[in-house]
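Box 4.2: Ligand-aware structure prediction
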Amino acid sequence: MASATQHFDAVVIGAGFSGIHVLKSLRDKLGLKVRVYEAGSTVGGTWYWNRYPGARCDSDAYIYCFTWDKQLLQEWEWSERYPKQPEILRYLEHVAARHDLKRDMQFNTRVTGAEFDEDANLWRVHTDQGEDITARYLIAAVGSLSTTNMPRFEGLDQFRGKWYHTSQFPHDGVDFTNKRVGVVGTGATAVQAISEIAQQAKQLVVFQRTANYCVPARNGRVDPEVTKARKADYDGVVKRTRESFFGQEHYFIPKSALEATPEEREREFDRMWDSGGFAFWLGNYQDMFFSQEANDLCADYLKRKIRRTVKDPAVAERLIPKDYAYGTKRQPLDTNYYETFNKDNVLLVDASTDGAIEAITENGIRAGGRDYELDIIVFATGFDAMTGPLKALNLKGRGGCTLDEQWADGPHTYLGISVAGFPNLFTITGPQSPSVLSNMPVSIEQHVEWVTDCIEAMHKAGKTRIEATPEAQQQWVAHVNEVVGATLMVGANSWYMSANIPGKARAFLPYLGPEGVGGYRRKCDEVAAKGYEGFELA
Ligand code: NA7
C-alpha cells in the first residue's frame, strides 16, 4: 500500500563511503532533514556487495578512511596494509554507529526513479517499497562501480553447476573445496580472487580475454612504528593527499624515463616494485602516461618480471599484455598471481591463443571449440562504470529529460558533480571528476565538503535552486577530453574508456588532471569563490 508523501531537505541514494559522509555532513553540520535510501541491508556500498574471496582495498588503509573524525583516525587499528572486505565493512558499521547515522537510513530500499517538479522546485523520488518522497536536494552517492556487468553468454541458463558474479557474491561465502572452478575475467577483481580460489579448488580454469600488467601488493602487517609516525602526522597526511595528484602519497619522478640511465632506471623500477602497491603505477616517471617510448621501458620491466615468475614460457607469453600501454587500464595489485599459474591445478585459457568463450554449456564453458567441465563459474566481468549507476536511477530532469538521452555519446557533466537540466542534483564522485583515478575517500570527502558548502551558501543567499549552465558543462566536457587526449589512456580498451560494455559509446569516464585531485579541488573552490561560476542560482 502506498504511503503518504514524506518530505526531506535532502534525499541521499546509497550508504557507502559517500552516503555515510553526506548524511553526517548535511545533518550534523547544516542541520538538514536527510534520509538515505540503500538497496543493501546495511551500510557499506561497494564493501557490502563485493564479498568474493580476496576482496580487499588497493589503497593503503591509513588513507582509505574518513578524515573528518580525527579521534577515530587515532583510535582505529587496521590489521594489515590492505584490509579485507569484512574489516572495511566493520569500519563503516562502526562509523555509522558512532555517529548515530542509521536512524536516518532506510535499508533494503532501492530508488526506482525520481523526477524534478519544476513548479514545486522539488525532486519527487520513488522507491521499490512504494514510497513517494519529496526533497529539495537529491544526492546520488551510488558509487562509480556498482552496476554489475554480466555479459550475455549464450547457454548460461542451461549450466547445471553454480555461478556467481563477484560483485554479488553470497554473504555466507562459497566453498570451492574439491570443485572444478572457472573464473571469467582477469581484471583487478579476478587478480585478487584467482590466487585465493586456486588454494581451495580442485581445478581452476582462468578465462582471459585481455592480459593485465600486475604488480605486487606487498600486503602484510604494517610496522607499528610506521603507523605511530603516520598517526602523529595525520594532519600532514591529509593535507598531502588532498593536494596530491592521485589522492595518494605517490609522486611522479620529476624527469623523463628516457633521460635516466639504464642503471638508474632499473634502480627506480626495483624501488617501486619492492615497495608494492600503486607506487609503480602512480609514482613512476612523469612521462609514463604520455610517451609511448617511456611507457615501453616501464612495460618492459614488468614483462621481464612475468617471464621470470611464470615457469612455463608459453603461459608467461600469454600473460603478457600485447596491445595497450602500461597503466592505461586499472592497475591490479596481486598477491602471488603469476605464481598461481605455476600450480598444477591451474589452467589459463587465453582468448587470443586458445580461443574466446563461445558458450556456457550444461557442464561448463566452451572456448575455442573445446569444452571445459566446471562445477562453479565465477564471473569477474566488472561493471558498467560511472554512468551505469546514475542511469539506473531513472532520473527525469527539467522537461522530462533523461540521462540516457543526454549521455548517449558519453557523460556530459559540469565538474563531475552536476548535470545541466537536473537542478539540485549532486553526483558524488560522478563521471568527469577524478573519482576512480584517485584514492576514493579523498575524492568523496572533497565532493561532500563542496556540496555542503554550496548548500550552506545557497541558504545564506536565500536561493533554493542551482543548476549547471549548458555552456559551463560543454566547456568542462571539452576540457576533460582535451586533457586525456594528450595521454596514452585513450588508446586502451579499458572500462575508463567505456570499452568493456558492448554498445556503450566510447568516452573517457573520469577526469585526469592536469594537476590531479589537488588541481581539481582548487578549480572547484575557485568556482565557489566566484559565486558558483558556471551555475545558475535561483
Ligand atoms: P574489470 O577491470 O572491468 O575486469 C573485467 C574482466 O572481465 C576483464 O578481464 C575483461 O576483459 C573480462 N570480461 C568482460 N567481459 C567479458 C566477456 N564478455 N568475455 C570475456 N571476458 C570478459 O572489472 P573488475 O571487477 O576486475 O575491476 C573493476 C574495478 O573495481 C577495478 O578496476 C577497481 O577499480 C575496482 P577485457 O579486459 O575487457 O578484455
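In the box above, the bound molecule is NA7. The longest strand covers residues 132-140.
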